[in-house]
Structure formats: structure tokens, C-alpha cells
Amino acid sequence: MTETASQLLATFETLPVEEQHEVLAQMLRRTGDFPVTFLADDALTDIADQLFQSLDAEEADGERTNAG
Fold first, then answer.
1. 20 Cβ partners below 8 Å, 6+ apart?
2. Cα(66)–Cα(60) distance, rounded to whole angstroms?
């Protein structure tokens, strides 16, 4: 990932959740203009792994918050 993309994601994460949802919805709408491409199995596996790790971290953080 480029430095610009990393900065974009870092800025996105500082937004309130409602604004994150709005930005994400706008970005998804714009992907309709992209040419159809298929990801390689390795890329899909990496994406799924990152997603599950993120969800696990959020769940663990929520459990710590609720326990305290």
C-alpha cells in the first residue's frame, strides 16, 4: 500500500463512526465504475484473514470495555 493510501486510511479512522459509514458508502458507490477484475485466491485469503483479525480485535476490545 502506498503512503498516500495509508494516510487516507489513518484519517478515515479518526472520523466519527457515522462519518466513516457515509464515506464508505460513497466509496462503494464509486466502485461501480471500476472494471470487473477477479482477485487471486491468495489475495482473497489475505483480505479474509485481515478482516477476521480486525473483527476479533474489536470483539476482544468490546469484552474488555464491558468487563471494566
1. 12, 13
2. 10
pTM across the whole model:
0.49
Cell readout for 43 is 489475495
Helix, strand or coil for residue 18? Answer: helix
pLDDT in 10s for each residue of the chain, 68 residues = 899 999 999 999 999 999 999 999 998 888 777 777 777 888 889 989 998 999 888 888 877 766 66
Tell me how far apart the alpha carbons of residues 59 and 53 are, in angstroms, rounded to a whole number.
10
Q: Where are the domains of the chain?
A: 1-35, 38-68
Quote the cell numbers at residue 16.
Answer: 466519527
